[in-house]
Amino acid sequence: MVRLRARCLMVGDPAVGKSALSQMFHSDGTLFQKNYSMTTGVELLIKSVNIPESGDSVELYIIDSAGKESLVEANEKMWGVPSLLCLVFDLASERSFGSCARWMERVRTHCKGLQVPGVLVGNKCDLSARREVPTSVAQEWAQSQGLEYHETSAKEMEKCDAPLLSLARAFHALYQERREAIQNLSPG
Amino acid sequence: MNESSIRSLGLKVVVAASNDENHPPENMIDGNANTFWMSTGMFPQEFIIRFAEMTNVSSVTLDSYNVKHLKVEKNTSENASHFEFVEEKELKLTEGQLQTNSISLGGSNATHLRFIITSGYDHFVAVHKIDAAASSLVV
To answer: Which of A97, A177, B12, B109 is the most exposed place for a label (fewest CB within 10 A)?
Structure first.
């Protein structure tokens, strides 16, 4: 039994639902904040995820960082070196999807050359009438960035724990892979 | 006593920040470079080793993998607390084989040594073996 620890960075434009997704995940779907309250700093949420059929767990340190441009620079200092990335946009906002490339660039400067498993999340899929970003476009861009694509609705509790569960599993797989590689090293 | 092996110094690992039960901290001091302690995510990572008694340590040798930056602290107390800085080192990346580094501690008297891995070349690092060179035991 192993308990892994991963620093999971949550980024994206303001009001796309980063905090809603984080809190829904953290509270096992019991806490959806109906009133918007802008995150101005960095919120840390810790959640342990059991990895099926392994007895292992991954403790996610979810770093929910403010999306507002003027606050990013100050908050970046608290990002540290991320283990995992969750990049969120609003399916009803083309603009928030357009910002994703800039977010990726910013996150990369913190990764110190490490391979950081990541997901792209199109949130608010309940707003189907107002959708501005087609699934295929988001999917294609995600793939070009090496991200796994998810669509969620924190409000309707739709698949909103899938992205972070998938990241926890990816981190666990990475650990096993690295452990095996180290086991096969020849002594120096 | 010269160039003592770590076992004759009665070494123990008293703290480690990660614990994979298949790769426990004791693997660092079993004298075998095939077994290892592995970190399980995030930095910093640290471990503390204790000598059976106050020891004059001239250097420590570390066999490891993917460790980037390492800080060594020591104390001379009975408890694993109140450490003072001794040395730090940037280790080179060695792909496919272990890193072997000797860190001079300049004959510091110590009861505990604390190793802080502040960064790595990967999410996970491993330490296979620690050896201490003790010039003399302090009476």
So the answer is: A177
* Rounded-to-integer distance, Cα B85 and Cα B113, Å: 10
In Å, how far is A171's CA from the nearest CA of chain B? 9
Chain A residues with CB under 8 Å of B20 CB are 2, 179
Convert the pLDDT of each residue in A27-70 to its tens digit: 998 888 888 899 999 999 999 999 998 999 999 999 999 999 99
Q: Residue B72: which CATH number? A: 2.60.120.260
CA distance A91 to A17: 11
Length reported for chain A: 188
Taking CA–CA distances from A115, the nearest residue in chain B reads B122
Residues of chain B neighbouring A3 (CB-CB closer than 8 A): 19, 40
pLDDT class of B136 with cuts at 50, 70, 90: low
In CATH, the number for domain A3-183 is: 3.40.50.300
For residue B2, what pLDDT band results from cuts at 50, 70 and 90? very low
Residue B92 within any structural domain of the chain: yes
- Interface with A, mutate which of B30, B34, B40, B69 (most A CBs under 10 A): B40
Q: Considering the domain boundaries, does residue B2 fall inside one?
A: no
3-state SS string for A19-46: HHHHHHHHCCCCCCCCCCCCCCCEEEEE
Phi and psi torsions of B12, nearest 5°: -140, 145
Tell me how many domains chain B contains: 1
- Residue A105 has what pLDDT? 96
Sign of the CA dihedral with A176 first, then A181, A183, and A188 last: negative
